Amino acid sequence: MQIRSLSSEQLNSLSATQISSLSATQIGALSGTEWDSLSSSLLGALTADQIGGLTAAQLDALASNRLTELAATQLSGITTTTISELAITTIPYLTTTELSALSASQIWGFTDTQLNSMTEEQITTLYNALV
């Protein structure tokens, strides 16, 4: 399927089953505008592998109002490289539930600058996830 050729309306007409069957590469081809228009139910239907195929820029595009819609289990697919490339402005949108679900290697992917931008609650969550 040529995902880039779909309009936002066509994209949102896909079922949860259809969107979850797309490859990580196809999901990664979505533009920022398409991400912004993706319905909550379709966003929730994405698999950890599909989320893992996203770039930091694509996750940053979700940050302001959509990142919290991802389930903690979906974030398990994000690579340490992608985590280290997340914008500082994205960090506040990571919920404690999402952070607590990250693996130790994902947590070690955060840069010092990212860690310094976190709230005390976020840091405590990461610490507790590591112990």
Keywords:
mainly alpha, 131 residues, 55% helix, 12 helices, single chain
Number of strands: 0
Terminal Cα span: 44 Å
Order of helices and strands: HHHHHHHHHHHH
Extract low-pLDDT stretches. none
Counting DSSP H or I runs of 4 or more residues, the number of helices is: 12
Largest sheet: none
Explain the overall architecture.
The model has no long low-confidence stretch (mean pLDDT 86). The protein has helices at residues 8-12, 16-20, 24-28, 32-37, 40-45, 48-52, 56-63, 80-85, 96-100, 104-107, 112-117, 120-130. The radius of gyration is 15 Å and the shape is elongated. The protein has twelve helices and no strands. By secondary structure, the protein is mainly α.
Short characterization:
With 131 residues, the chain is mostly helical.
Q: Strands, helices and their partners?
A:
Layout: H1 8-12, H2 16-20, H3 24-28, H4 32-37, H5 40-45, H6 48-52, H7 56-63, H8 80-85, H9 96-100, H10 104-107, H11 112-117, H12 120-130
